[in-house]
């Protein structure tokens, strides 16, 4: 089975940068119609973000850049006095870096946070706090999507909690900018 490389943003008629809302939908539609997938890469510093963007640009591909809770802390530094705050600020710092650099590399990026279980809901909410301010400043969401993985929780609570947190996403965009996955498997 061969895999196709994602086309450049020009081929999907999308401007380079972090995709959200309708742009996110258009990128997914282009992937479906073109029969290709976007590679997803977890990053832990500006050096890994830049390497992913450079590789994507060199290969004329778009990409998913993911941040984990632990990986996000590296952006603020392991010596930051409050680990929970470091993980939020690190993720926000990384997101702002990706916003700045993706456009300059000419790559469409889905900016995603990876697998946040119940104990990491405060991390997601901290990013949403910063995302609300970013949206007020720029008119764009800070992240393309967040993943709540509440598969260890009862289904009814799982879905209810996802719905509660989803209400915090910007409503002025044409489609959901935050994807919460209430996984059950």
Describe, in plain words, how this protein is organized in 3D:
By secondary structure, this protein is of the alpha/beta class. It has one domain (18-166): Aldolase class I (TIM Barrel). The protein is built from 7 helices and 5 strands, in the order αβαβαβααβαβα. Strands 1, 2, 3, 4 and 5 form a 5-stranded parallel beta sheet that branches. Strand 2, helix 3 and strand 3 (63-67) form a beta-alpha-beta unit. Helix 3 (46-58) runs parallel beside helix 5 and helix 5 (83-105) packs across helix 6. The longest helix is centred in the middle third of the chain and has 23 residues, at 83-105. The chain starts with 8 loop residues before the first helix and ends in a 19-residue tail after the last helix. 35% of the residues are buried. Residues 1-5 and 172-185 have low confidence and may be disordered.
Q: Report the major sheet.
A: 5 strands, parallel
Tally of individual domains:
1
Estimate the global geometry from the Cα principal axes.
globular
Strand content: 5-15%
With helices defined by DSSP (H or I, 4 residues minimum), what is the helix count? Answer: 7
Number of strand elements: 5
The percentage helix is 40-55%
Enter the CATH topology name.
TIM Barrel
pLDDT averaged residue by residue: 87
Identify low-pLDDT runs.
1-5, 172-185
